[in-house]
Design a protein that fits this description.
Number of strands: 3
Distance between the termini: 76 Å
Helix content: 40-55%
Number of helices: 4
Strand content: 5-15%
Shape: rod-shaped
Structural class: mainly alpha
Strand order of the largest sheet: 1-3-2
Radius of gyration: 30 Å
């Protein structure tokens, strides 16, 4: 049991006081960071990413994997998995990017 000799002593030793100081500093840094993040989130405008699929693409109706993902509401990973699994999945490879004919790909996926 700790009995203080003076009214201002809060801890039994220097080591305990240092431990508490470190803990208070850590909590203060965390609270300051949380307050800063809350202010940033409150002032930041909310931007929803929506693709306009009503307008037709270029003349060739070629779409990339992100657009295909947005149109079909299927994740890109699932689409890549389907491409690997199905050999008759029509695709064009342009360098490292994959392009798809919109009509030949969207109709079989939705069916």
């Amino acid at each position: 049991m700790f009995i203080a000799q003076k009214a201002t002593i809060k801890f039994c030793s220097l080591k305990c006081a240092q431990r508490n100081h470190k803990l208070r500093e850590r909590k203060e840094r965390i609270n300051k960071s949380n307050d800063k993040n809350v202010k940033i989130l409150q002032t930041a405008p909310v931007v929803e990413k929506q693709m306009d699929i009503s307008q037709p693409q270029l003349a060739g109706e070629l779409i990339d994997i992100k657009t295909l993902s947005a149109i079909t509401n299927i994740s890109e990973c699932t689409l890549f998995y389907q491409i690997k699994r199905e050999t008759d999945f029509s695709k064009l490879k342009n360098g490292r990017s994959l392009l798809f004919h919109k009509q030949t790909v969207v109709n079989p996926i939705r069916a």
